[in-house]
């Protein structure tokens, strides 16, 4: 019996993958796993190596070193065996520009034993009115939705989605999220790359943050965001942060994120409460300073992402 076809809990297993383009290292020893029946979100700035990693997993590129296994198989050597089991939605392209939306979905359905209904997918994704329209004449959002439909029409065991909701309006994004939830409930593994933090928090069971071709953090949304709580307040710029830190309990720290905008962070969430707020406001009052807009916040995924990858703009 071929153990590669056994229902392994791990759908994707990437180990120490390196991919270079000339002098540029796009992926630098990256390792990650994705489970069946779960959504794994891959996050990172532009040029972090997300798309290259997905292309290696889907057999479009060969790693220079390291290994990638998809459903227990090599995505290049075993491409023919994997094709009916894996759905792929690339970031752009993938559908002939002259293909009509409805005809393309019906063609894709014909390649699978038990496909989803092409008509149902057209209806779910709001494409009935453009069923006979060539791909090149569809709007960007319509092209995205058709690519998604083509990726999932075969009821795949595993789906790769590269920026699936880029350019979509809120209604189309909500419809996409519903389909992703249904894929997970049906037992499929989903690996998606996205720039939308809300999307990752809403959909993902596991998040992998990538930068400079390496994994720099991973965990569930709760694990990545619940380790710290913070108090934010506004007042005049240039407070003596060392003096403030000395007045605060152990396990907290104070920073001035922007002129006049202060954050007091606590590694133990239990430290963030009425006593800490009273300490901050009393310390400010003793210096004839009014602490305004005092807020208690748990770090968001976007906070974590920016702390790990930096706030500067990337050129690519």
Automatic annotation (TrEMBL):
Keywords: Antibiotic resistance, ATP-binding, Nucleotide-binding, Transport. SUPFAM superfamilies: P-loop containing nucleoside triphosphate hydrolases. It is a peripheral membrane protein. Gene3D superfamilies: P-loop containing nucleotide triphosphate hydrolases (3.40.50.300). One of its GO terms (molecular function) is ATP binding. The keyword Hydrolase does not apply. Its main location: membrane. Residues 12-237 form the ABC transporter domain. It is found in: Cell membrane. The keyword Membrane does not apply. PANTHER family: ABC TRANSPORTER ATP-BINDING PROTEIN. This is ABC transporter ATP-binding protein. It comes from Lipingzhangella rawalii.
